[in-house]
Amino acid sequence: MSPKEKKKLNILRKKLDKLDNSLIKIVKKRKLLVDQVLKLKKYKNQIVDNKRIEMILKNIKKKSIKNNIDHKLTKIIWKNMISAFIDYEKRNFKRK
Fold first, then answer.
1. Is 71 in a helix, a strand, or coil?
2. Where would I find the H helices in the chain?
3. Number of domains in the chain
4. How far separated are the first and last CA of the chain, in Å rounded?
């Protein structure tokens, strides 16, 4: 890699780091909303709602196509995010 390419790579990586910082703030906002949802659930089996998950993934596919984003990429991202939040809810579920 040439010095010019290295410099360009470093600039792009700094932009990615800045974007990651923004994403962290969004994840925190989502987590706070999930906390509110979790308080409404009375039973642990209410954590996973397969119909809702399918609806979310279908909507993400439509929005991805509309915005010219690889819908397979966004599907993987959202499936992993949903899975991570399901795990979070299961770990933080408190019986009422």
1. helix
2. 3-40, 50-66, 71-92
3. 1
4. 59
User: Is the model's pTM score more than 0.85?
Assistant: yes
pLDDT at 88 over 70: yes
List the CATH number of the domain containing 82.
1.20.59
pLDDT in tens, 41-56: 999 999 999 999 999 9
Tell me which residue range forms the domain holding 55: 3-92
Q: How big is the chain by its Cα radius of gyration, in Å? A: 18
- As a whole number, mean pLDDT of residues 11-25 equals 98
Which class for 5: exposed (0-12), middle (13-18), buried (19 or more C-beta within 10 A)? exposed
Q: What is the pLDDT of residues 73-83, one digit of tens each?
A: 999 999 999 99
**Residue 82 vs residues 19, 88, 95, 96: alpha-carbon distances, Å:** 21, 10, 22, 24
